[in-house]
Amino acid sequence: MAQAQTGIDRMDVGNQLLLGDQDCPYEDIMDAIEGSASPGILYSKWKDFGRRLNTPDDTMTTLELNIGKPGNTYRNAISTILKESNGKPLSDVISALRKCNVNDIADAVTNKFSLR
């Protein structure tokens, strides 16, 4: 049974990664994210991020709000972002993560897909 994936349509040198189809499986993105820190660290980061979202400011994007939806596990929240970002540059996801102070996760994704 084929697994549904959110992946990367294409990667070009100009740092343009588009979420979309099959070239780079969604699971690879998740592995990069989950490989960036221990579950305990990820969980505590998530809780801190959730506290910040209790009083979101006007500059928070939909992407950022999706990262911290109440009740989301870390994996589910990232999964939500990737699925709802279909067709948008992965750099937008990375920017949202950085703005929310989840820099090690953003670094992991950046490094996984050689976005530097």
TrEMBL record:
Residues 45-113 form the Death domain. It comes from the Eukaryota. InterPro entries: DEATH-like_dom_sf, Death_dom. GO terms for biological process: signal transduction. This is Death domain-containing protein. It comes from Orchesella cincta.
